[in-house]
């Protein structure tokens, strides 16, 4: 994006062209004919064969100047007498700047299924190899690196995982007050983590934010089973049993309870694996990781903990005292505090057992209050994150020249560069604002992307910086400036929508009716609290100069509409008629009128045309040039015309804004055949919440089945039933 392209320009003087009675089509034909390297077969001379070849390709610009253009009346004119030939650059329609310096932006996309971090590492390695070949005044700088956010997130999660493990060990020591028992529990954490990694690998999952988040979530639960088993072994050891017998008896007594506890927790996460759609993509890695961690911790609790306890607690006899040392006083005070806590809990438990009805009613009441209070909590699809980016999209009046757009963007650049939070500013003029601004667009559009400093180096978040810019950026007549701070790695653009969190789609058949309804909805959404920069997808018509060919008059001169259109395109846009090869490169040779001859609409009237009789005809003799507007982009979804209205959100959740807009839209009298759909993140949130509620219901059922099967099995074991009877009764 940006930069210039070398081009050989043949700028034909229209006055000289008319003076010699020639047209651009004849100039183009001469250039195509002259620039050829034509084989002519073979000839013999004695015993040898010679390949006949006519090397007619252009070797330098003098060859172009010597090209002869033959007129229909037999005149022959050298190209140098008709045109100015320049080795120049193609017309610039796109500009790019980095921190105010002219730049070329390279946008690298990864292949589908490729790992983002690995691709970025390879790209950086290739850039380091190329760095030594760049001239001293040219530098390259990564301005958008998705791997940085990913690696930072994973690094933070890994750090939290380690911190959580250390805190778990500290809490265990706080309660057990013995380094031997604490060491037994601590060993189960790395063993369970390694086992979980193995299961993650063989299940085809990867280490990412979701899976590592699940692992960090599972660390606290990893030690639950081990604590239960060790506590029971510890109790048997205090009662005087030998270490081996205490390990066997203690683990055996709680095996059933530990298995039931683990399976009920797994039953909460496992149903997510069977859900399809976006919910499965977001939560399946976490559900699998947590389930793997819990199963690994169960295995460690029933095998590793009893085995190590039989050795580590071998020397303890009778009353197991706290480990002597500097922490002895602290642990003694902790023990006294815990004993007092146990006494109070025993009293509270006795009271609860004596007032069962009141306890059950109180729990039911709390459940009802929680359900009723749920609507008071705001809802959104994904939590807002500070990714350190702010994107500004500039939309000038349709048809604005590149220079005018560039001046407006330069003013915005100078203002945002002064912000203390900004690290780099990337501007692309002539872009459509998509992604990094690199997309289909025109000279009336531009985008400015701000990369902010690290969060620790700035006081304001990206959302606060964006809100401040919305208030402070200059407001120019006819110029729309949109500011957004991408707040989620799962942006709605990734989900097939826009980058705005709020989006609604107005659907119907008649464009005029849709436009009127869209204006009313636009005003309605703007009046909703928490919305910012509400915009519509309805595009303004672009100005055009329509050349209306009089077919009868054109036919009288032996011309067709196609010939007229070709002549206009050649004069204004120019045609690449051939290639100029030099130094192993092929450079376009473009024929067109010079800029002063195509600067305004009036100059189109004097474009020369060659009639069927070989005489010269001006465009104004066969056509009329009128101002007009071009066709607008018409969007359709499911074969229905649609206008989208989007908005940024500040200070309110997506669910609250959607609920308020729904109430306002319900009061509008929409004509039959016209309706509103809430798309983007609202649609994804609705589908995701629905599938998660199904998963929650399934989890409740699975928990009941696990507990029921557990209690049936325990009851039958106590009655002396056979294994077959236990299995049959459990399934029934």
Question: Any key phrases for this structure?
Answer:
single chain, 732 residues, alpha+beta, 5-stranded antiparallel β-sheet, 19 helices
Principal-axis shape equals: elongated
**Share in β-strands:** 15-25%
Give a short account of the largest sheet. Answer: 6 strands, antiparallel
Provide the gyration radius in Å: 38 Å
Mean pLDDT: 81
Structural class: alpha+beta
Question: Strand arrangement, largest sheet?
Answer: 8-7-10-11-9-12
Low-confidence stretches: 433-440, 489-498
The count of helical stretches stands at 19
- Please tally the β strands and state the result: 23
**CA-CA gap between termini:** 68 Å
Percent in helix: 40-55%
Overview of the molecule:
The chain is 48% helix and 19% strand. Strands 8-7-10-11-9-12 form a 6-stranded antiparallel β-sheet, covered by helices on one side. Strands 13, 14, 21, 22 and 23 form a 5-stranded antiparallel β-sheet that branches. A hairpin with a 5-residue loop joins strand 4 and strand 5. It is built from 19 helices and 23 strands. Mean pLDDT is 81; it is low at 433-440 and 489-498.
Q: What order do the helices and strands come in, and which of them pair?
A:
Layout: E1 6-12, H1 14-19, H2 24-34, E2 37-45, E3 48-55, H3 61-65, E4 68-70, E5 76-78, E6 83-89, E7 95-98, E8 101-102, H4 116-131, H5 146-176, H6 179-202, H7 209-238, H8 243-269, H9 278-312, H10 328-354, H11 356-373, E9 389-395, H12 402-416, E10 422-429, E11 445-452, H13 462-472, E12 480-484, E13 502-508, H14 511-526, E14 531-536, E15 543-549, H15 551-556, H16 561-572, E16 575-582, E17 585-592, E18 608-610, E19 616-618, E20 623-629, E21 635-637, E22 640-649, H17 654-666, E23 675-679, H18 681-718, H19 723-731
Parallel strand pairs: 1-17
Antiparallel strand pairs: 1-6, 2-3, 4-5, 7-8, 7-10, 9-11, 9-12, 10-11, 13-22, 13-23, 14-22, 15-20, 16-17, 18-19, 21-22
Helix pairs in contact: 4-5, 5-6, 5-7, 6-7, 6-9, 7-8, 7-9, 8-9, 8-18, 18-19
């Amino acid at each position: 994006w940006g930069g210039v392209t070398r081009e050989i320009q043949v700028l034909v003087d229209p006055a000289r062209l008319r003076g010699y009675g020639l047209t651009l089509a004849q100039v183009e034909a001469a250039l195509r004919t002259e620039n050829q390297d034509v084989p002519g077969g073979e000839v013999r001379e004695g015993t040898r064969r010679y390949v006949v070849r006519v090397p007619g390709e252009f070797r330098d610009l003098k060859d172009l100047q010597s090209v002869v253009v033959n007129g229909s009346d037999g005149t022959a004119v050298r190209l140098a007498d008709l045109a100015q030939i320049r080795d120049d650059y193609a017309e610039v329609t796109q500009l790019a700047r980095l921190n105010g310096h002219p730049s070329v932006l390279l946008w690298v996309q990864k292949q589908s299924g490729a790992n983002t971090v690995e691709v970025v590492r390879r790209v950086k390695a290739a850039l380091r190899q190329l760095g030594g070949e760049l001239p001293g005044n040219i530098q390259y700088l990564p301005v958008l690196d998705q791997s940085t956010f990913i690696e930072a997130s994973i690094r933070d999660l890994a750090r939290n995982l380690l911190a959580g493990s250390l805190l778990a060990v500290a809490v265990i020591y706080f309660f057990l007050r013995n380094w031997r028992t604490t060491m037994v529990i601590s060993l189960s954490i790395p063993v369970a983590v390694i086992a979980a990694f193995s299961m993650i690998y063989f299940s085809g999952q990867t280490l990412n934010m979701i899976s590592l988040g699940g692992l960090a979530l599972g660390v606290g639960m990893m030690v639950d089973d081990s604590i239960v088993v060790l506590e029971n072994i510890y109790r048997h050891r205090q009662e005087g049993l030998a270490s081996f017998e205490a390990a066997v008896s203690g683990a055996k007594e709680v095996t059933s309870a530990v298995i039931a506890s683990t399976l009920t927790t797994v039953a909460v996460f496992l149903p997510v694996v069977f859900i399809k759609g976006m919910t499965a993509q977001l939560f399946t890695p976490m559900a699998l990781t947590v389930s793997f961690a819990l199963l690994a911790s169960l295995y460690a609790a029933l095998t590793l903990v009893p085995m190590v306890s039989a050795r580590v607690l071998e020397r303890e006899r009778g009353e197991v005292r706290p480990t002597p040392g500097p922490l002895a006083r602290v642990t003694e005070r902790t023990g006294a505090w815990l004993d007092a806590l146990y006494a109070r809990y025993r009293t509270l438990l006795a009271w609860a057992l004596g007032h069962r009805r009141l306890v059950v009613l109180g729990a039911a009441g709390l459940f009802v209050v929680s359900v009723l209070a749920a609507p008071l909590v705001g809802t959104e699809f994904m939590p807002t994150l500070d990714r350190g980016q702010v994107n500004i999209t500039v939309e000038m009046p349709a048809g604005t020249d590149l220079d005018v757009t560039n001046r407006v963007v330069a003013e915005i650049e100078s203002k945002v560069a002064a912000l203390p939070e900004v690290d780099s500013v990337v501007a692309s003029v002539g872009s459509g604002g998509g992604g990094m601004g690199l997309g289909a667009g025109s000279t009336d559009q531009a985008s400015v992307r701000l990369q902010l400093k690290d969060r620790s180096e700035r006081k304001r978040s990206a959302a606060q910086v964006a809100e401040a810019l919305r208030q402070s950026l200059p407001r120019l007549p006819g110029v729309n400036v949109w500011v957004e701070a991408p707040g989620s790695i799962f942006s709605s653009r990734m989900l097939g929508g826009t980058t705005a969190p709020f989006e609604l789609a107005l659907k119907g058949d008649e464009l005029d009716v849709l436009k009127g309804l869209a204006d009313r909805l636009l005003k309605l959404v703007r009046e909703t609290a928490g919305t910012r920069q509400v915009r519509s997808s309805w595009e303004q018509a672009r100005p055009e100069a329509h050349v209306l060919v009089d077919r009868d008059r054109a036919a009288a001169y032996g011309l067709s509409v196609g010939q007229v259109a070709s002549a206009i395109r050649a004069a204004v846009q120019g045609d690449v008629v051939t290639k100029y090869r030099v130094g192993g490169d092929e450079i376009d040779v473009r024929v067109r009128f010079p800029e002063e001859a195509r600067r305004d609409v009036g100059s189109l009237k004097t474009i020369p045309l060659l009639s069927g009789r070989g005489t010269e005809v001006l465009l104004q003799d066969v056509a009329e040039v009128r101002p007009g507007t071009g066709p607008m982009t018409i969007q359709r979804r499911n074969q229905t015309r649609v206008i989208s209205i989007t908005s940024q959100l500040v200070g309110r959740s997506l669910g609250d804004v959607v609920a308020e807009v729904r109430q306002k839209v319900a009061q509008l009298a929409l004509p039959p055949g016209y309706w509103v759909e809430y798309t983007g993140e609202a649609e994804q949130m609705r589908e995701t919440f629905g599938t998660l509620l199904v998963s929650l219901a399934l989890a409740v059922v699975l928990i009941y089945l696990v507990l029921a099967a557990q209690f049936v099995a325990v009851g039958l074991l106590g009655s002396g039933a056979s294994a077959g009877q236990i299995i049959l009764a459990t399934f029934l």
